[in-house]
Write the structure tokens for this entry.
Amino acid sequence: MSSFWGFLAENLETFYSFTGVANATPGHLIMILIGLLFIFLAIRYEFEPMLLIPIGFGMLIGNIPMLNGLQVGIYEEGSVLNILYQGVRQGWYPPLIFLGIGAMTDFTALISNPKLMLVGAAAQFGIFAAYMTALQLGFTPTEAGAIGIIGGADGPTAIFLSNRLAPHLLGAIAVSAYSYMALVPVIQPPFMRLLTTKKERVMRMKRPRQVSQTEKIIFPIAGLLLTTMLVPPALPLLGMLFFGNLLRESGVTKRLADTAKGPLIDTITILLGVTVGASTQATEFLTGNSILIFGLGAFSFVVATVSGILFVKFFNVFLKSENKINPLIGNAGVSAVPDSARISQTLGLEYDPTNYLLMHAMGPNVAGVIGSAVAAGILLSFLG
């Protein structure tokens, strides 16, 4: 009888050793709390719920404590999570996301007012400011380049670049990029108010001209050739972005465009969000570098926002009064589409309920998508 109880006790002890309770560390608990915070912000305040809920729940999945060797964890070769994570590690989730973005994006505002492309370009200064700062803090050039791209507020581009330049920092960079995309309504408005006058906030912009269907069809073809001829490393992202837009604008591939901007992008967003969240396994994620990356990400995002606003104010000096740009759309140069453009609209209506800036803000906003991909290509060309 004693041998039976001894055998039972041994089995119970073995079982306990495999439980999450036995293997939990303070790091696991911290990451689980962060995951719960992401889910709370997504549901309570609707901060990018399509991103934060998959990422937050992925954090819970990735931080269930367990013994190595169970072939369950995301970093264990051959596990289901590891196989799904290959879409991030091998870099094929981001181009598919860009395909969907292209299929759902209307470039009319940018085509009708091409100078707004310069606003999107100016906002990319945040990327290079963060790159130079990261170098000063002791990161290697490739690590600094991967960290800097957070300033573009473009999660897929951040994943694409960090996977190529600094895969060991992928989790921290991806979570940081998506976090700041979700926090656009919190981060940008204070700087928009600080850097503009009341007179500038109520400035009315000239109504965009009508854009023909022919122009809409030519734009993705010309855009592809012009951008990728200059920065070929950005081809996987820009190629899919402009292809998706051609599917939308051609008028003869509606079914393909609907698939790209609907079921396809939704499926990839779920897989990308959950696996990026799961990659924040405490043993791999909670390091001093992760904290620095979050700080640099905030810095680059703020610099990008400020650069866009200040550039508009500077640019207005050279424009005729009827062509001047409302500085409130300068924040939209970051590529958090369409949230940063909505912030321009919201603040504009706050100071003048009849001044609608959304259509104008979409110009630099979609230019920012192109600009962040171009910036990634430039960094890859001399760091990759």
User: Anything to note?
Assistant: The chain has 21 helices and no strands. The chain has a mean pLDDT of 92.
